[in-house]
TrEMBL record:
Cross-referenced SMART domains: PGA_cap (SM00854)
UniProt keyword terms in alphabetical order: Hydrolase, Nucleotide-binding, Signal
Domain spans labelled Capsule synthesis protein CapA: 23-263
GO molecular function: hydrolase activity, acting on ester bonds; metal ion binding; nucleotide binding
Lineage: Bacteria, Pseudomonadati, Pseudomonadota, Gammaproteobacteria, Pasteurellales
Any one Gene Ontology BP term: nucleotide catabolic process
Protein name (record): Ser/Thr protein phosphatase
């Protein structure tokens, strides 16, 4: 039974008797990113690696043993795998499938992730109000000082009071900076909010503190107070954190006696937390133990109830994504590996050349860049469907913003990109990704168009770019100013604290989402428009052969 007490949501569990030992199980999911059922809408194939439908099967099995387990989702549910189609307009948001799935699974808590803000606050309002779980985020306010949702909740179970605090990465404000979605909103310090909420919860008699945080363990982009490690080191009294956002599988990590777990991404894992309390006859509560682990769901079948709920949305997406928008006369990506690396990451391909042509055409830039999200990009000769665009360029919100940079700065940027790969060592037979960057949430190996160059992995860090020229053969001059187009998020990463352009406010010359609109100005939609309207639906699909990695024979 759920009831509201003094601004806090309190879940009161019915207890048959007060046992000396009280067992609490919390199941956490995060960053499911539109994997509602086992289907990849970009590839248009079944994908049983993970989904809400498979998690639902796991939860039903777990509830057979623990009927009163607590179920929480840590955010980033309404974006990716094409589920964003049902959030982009107000009309669609009013019938969004995510609340229906969360409600059917009987989630207790939902935490706002950064991608929940991608479609504007009015659309988010419609989605959140349909979620029966308590939506928590302590560090998100309207500029007038009013919170968007409740900061905390209390669950009472057999004499134990559990206090839950929701947090959202403050990086959300940076991610949405150019959209206007959060102009009237602000994020506050997770550390300061948690301190205040713990004090409030303790005053209400809470026995244990659990933080549900759409934040990774380490600080993001080296920005303080964006990772839960900083939080734990600054704030005492947190027993457990279920984290998210960074797409890492963290079964269990302990920092200062706080147990932290993170359930990877795309619904492939759940985090399972078990806590044991001793409740004495006089009502005093002592935490005896706390453990965490992550459990894969890839071997589980999809729950039929969730499949049925999502079926009309599934059918709509498949029809939408199978629309033919053009054709290519040649295979656009060789299906081979070059010294252990996908050819798409090792040399210019028809696909990378096509995307560069799109960026250059609309932006008028001298040089452009983008990154493939995965090595598995492909485009065989023949029909090009909308799903192929989505599959090969995954970031639905990706834009092109043109900055004025000198030739020296352009070279710095390209060297930073090239250092995604380590320098070749004696005996190496394959190229190697840098151990840190290669394991990051995001690929940071950018591919550059409008120029020709080689990435020589025999050279040390910051000197791998050789034979750099404009596409017409003109050498790049260090002092010359160039129009360089890239994703605005990438520039933010480069100019952040610790970035290669730290503090640099390069002049902004053009923005695709300003010039063409927030939808038409995305790279995905510019690719579709270019193929359909500029090229008349037909391309050769051949590579310009303007860049390659070298170093091994």
């Amino acid at each position: 039974m759920k009831k509201l007490l003094t601004g806090l949501f309190v879940l009161s569990a019915v207890s048959v008797a007060v046992a000396k030992e009280v067992n609490v199980k919390i199941v956490g999911t995060s960053d499911v990113h539109g994997r509602m059922v086992p289907w990849s809408y970009g590839a248009d194939v079944e994908d049983k690696s993970g989904s809400f439908a498979q998690i639902a099967t796991y939860v039903k099995q777990a509830r057979e043993k623990t009927p009163d387990l607590i179920l929480a989702d840590i955010g980033d549910a309404i974006q990716d795998n094409q589920v964003e189609v049902f959030a982009k307009t107000l009309e669609k948001a009013k019938d969004n499938p995510v609340p229906k799935v969360l409600n059917a699974m009987k989630y207790d808590f939902f935490i706002l992730g950064n991608h929940e803000f991608n479609f504007g606050m009015e659309n988010l309002d419609e989605i959140v109000k349909d979620i029966e779980a308590k939506t928590l985020t302590a560090n998100f306010y309207h500029k007038d000082g009013k919170r968007y949702v409740e900061p905390t909740a209390i669950v009472e179970k057999d004499g134990v009071k559990l206090g839950f605090i929701g947090l959202t990465t403050p990086m959300s404000a940076i991610f949405e900076k150019d959209t206007g979605h959060l102009d009237d909103w602000k994020f506050t310090s997770p550390i300061e909010e948690t301190k205040a909420q713990i004090a409030d919860l303790k005053a209400k008699g809470v026995d244990s503190i659990i933080v549900l945080a759409h934040m990774g363990i380490e600080n993001e982009n080296n920005i303080p107070d964006t990772g839960v490690e900083d939080l734990v080191n600054a704030v005492d009294g947190i027993d457990v954190i279920i984290a998210g956002h960074m797409h890492k599988n963290v079964p269990s990590e302990t920092i200062k006696d706080t147990v932290i777990t993170e359930p990877h991404r795309y619904g492939t894992m759940v985090s399972e937390v078990d806590m044991v309390f001793d409740v004495s006859d006089d009502g005093k509560v002592k935490l005896l133990s706390k453990t965490a682990t992550t459990i894969p769901v890839n071997k589980l079948e999809a729950d039929p109830e969730i499949v049925k709920i999502y079926q009309p949305y599934h059918d709509e997406l498949r029809a939408l994504n199978n629309v033919v928008i053009g054709e290519t006369a040649n295979d656009m990506v060789p299906m081979e590996k070059i010294h252990g690396v996908s050819s798409a990451f090792a040399k210019d391909s028809g696909l990378s050349s096509f995307i560069h042509d799109v960026q250059l055409h609309y932006s008028g830039a001298d040089v452009v860049s983008f990154a493939f999200d995965y090595e598995t990009v492909r485009q065989p000769k023949g029909e090009i469907k909308k799903k192929d665009i989505i599959y090969n360029y995954r970031y639905a919100g990706g834009d092109v913003t043109v900055y004025e940079l000198t030739g020296k700065q352009l070279k710095q940027y390209m060297e930073w990109s090239a250092d995604y790969f380590d320098t070749i060592q004696a005996g190496d037979k394959d190229y190697r990704y840098n151990d840190v960057r290669g394991k990051s949430k995001y690929v940071t190996f950018d591919l550059f168009g409008g120029v020709s160059y080689k990435v020589d992995l025999r050279n040390p860090s910051s000197s791998k770019i050789t034979e750099l020229k404009l596409a017409d053969g003109t050498p790049i001059n260090e002092e010359t100013k160039y129009k360089v187009g890239m994703n605005s998020y990438r520039y933010g990463q480069l100019s952040k604290q610790g970035g290669i352009f730290e503090g640099l406010k390069a002049p902004v010359l053009w923005e695709s989402k300003v010039a063409r609109g927030s939808e038409a100005g995305t790279i995905q939609n510019m690719m579709i428009d270019y193929l359909t309207n500029v090229k008349g639906g037909k391309i050769e699909g051949l590579s310009h052969n303007r860049w390659e990695i070298i170093g091994l024979d």
